[in-house]
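Team,

Forwarding the record for the chain on the shared tracking sheet. I've put the sequence and predicted structure together so nobody has to dig through attachments.
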Amino acid sequence: MRKRSGARLASQAEPKTRRALLARHRDFRWFWMGETVSVFGTQVTAFALPLVAALTLHAGAGAVGAVATASYLPNVIAPLLAGHWLESRRRRPAMIGADILRAVVLAVVPLSYGLGFLSIDLLCAVAFVVGAASALFDVASFAYIPTLVDAADLPGANQAMQGSTTVAQVGGPGLAGIIVQVAGPPLAVIANALSYLASILGVAAGGRGEPRPVPEDAGRSGIFGGIRSLLGNPYLRSLTAHAAMYNVAYQIVMVNLVVWVVKERHVGVGVYGVALSAAGAGAFLGTMAVLRVSARVGYGRAYLYALVLFTGVPLVLAALPLHGNALGYAIAAVEVVAGIGVGAANVLSTTLRQAVVGVGALARSMGSYRVIIFGVIPFGSAVGGVLGDTLGSRTGVAIGTACFAISATPMVFGRVRALGKPGDARPALTSSPVTAPEMTAPEMTAQE
């Protein structure tokens, strides 16, 4: 990595914006463009693989669920293993290798379909491998970005990456529907395989050399070292506890919301889909505005404002007295407001974790964080199902939204609320933290 001592001081003194970062930083611009294409392709595959099982192989709900489960299963342990493995390895080659693996494995689907040996078992295997490779890529990407951009640019970089992800979540399903309709489910999977090739080009085009990471706290850098570091740091502990509880609550809500809204209140399926997509639209707005807000009120207060939106506003869902599509539109309004908070919180959370964790521990920290917050999802789904069956779906929604509010308590009563900027959390670290970025306001036109 080239030396930037004087440039670093200058960069920290000047406001860094997403627009300026993309314009002046060639390496990050290539990386961002590749990832933007890739996340759209991932949305296509998430939409297409279940349809391959249901429409092409005429599978029932159990088989479709098996494919979906296979894609999730790697997140139970793969991020932990990936974080440990990447602790002393360069992350850029790992990302390129993960993209190559995903592209090749996804190409098996249309190939096997054409040759006549496509099966549910093969789809499950493809979903599992792609899920594992995606976990490796995500952990490596989190640890790589702080070596790609200067510390003062981290907020803008995370804002740009989160913005692309949010746009893909909003527009991806619609794009996927068009591709599936035109090409059919098996061939639609090719779109994601090609998107990973674009990601390879983006990662490879970055010219900045990546230093080999030096693991921190070598005596505790075993496979569970990342979990210990998360639980031992008061800021990371608050973030992790909040995210895990929120994910449990989210599953409780979603398991029951579809039953209450579509089956019991007769909201049209299309309107229900639009209502859920509205959360993505709100998240984009939150992503674009968060750096300006945090620059004015401070990091901790900005996070608390976001918490009010995405853990407090949904409390009104179960109390809505409407029926039919009117209920769907009301839910859409709630989702937009809550989504603003989610988008803002994602940028703030990512930046804080990258700022307070040392470079040599970023990979294992992200791997552990992902295992914890994703590992609770099956528990939330199971609890949601039990609550809906025993107490009714509307009560299940009410309990789930109450759990949203409860999930905010580690942040409200933890140290995070008092942070003026991520750098204020550095005293809680043990060694060699990344130089923490300032949360500066972007120069926006209409949006971030």
